[in-house]
Amino acid sequence: MTDLILALDSTTRIDAIRIAQAAAPYIDAIKIGYPLVLAEGLGIAGSLTGLNLPLIADFKVADIPNTNQLIAQQVFAAGFSGIICHGFPGPDSVEACVQVAHAQGGECYVVAEMSHPGGAAFFQGGIAEKIAQTVIDTGADGIIAPATRPERTRILREIIGTKKILSPGVGAQGGDANAIAGLVDGIIVGRAIYEADDPAAAAAAYSDILKRKN
User: Fold this and answer.
1) What pTM does this model have?
2) Rounded CA gap, 151 and 138, in Å?
């Protein structure tokens, strides 16, 4: 089964709640990043908990273990159920996020390779593969891998096995939901839903694609 995850990068509480409520019947989780949290604070999680959808904090945490631990503690205390961190600071930094997430009954995902064109510059040459192995070694729940480069995501799938893959880049960045759905556990769609004139219809269209693939 491939889930549909809304990347909710609105910058006002009113818009975020409106879009999330409209899309909620068709999505399986909401990913919230810096744009919304910097505008409205971590408390935005509390405003969305009534939708009964998992909330993933996409802060791409990338610091020393102690700082990662402190960030993760704040994330889960605010009501999030998952966190995304970077793998390049090393396995001890990843493990700090994993330990907090699992202590709170949540999940931790590690960025193995990013979805924008520049994401291919430094995450390849074996780096993404090493990060994927770190997920196995630290007990993290899965990786973030690009829908825009399905061939790379297939390679990373071979490394992580049954661990989850959440895949951004579908929609505005050019990733094809049909091409990636059967390979990953969740596709992440942002602008193609939250900037749509009718977010509910946009979310429903992606949901229909996944239903046909699942």
Assistant:
1) 0.95
2) 25
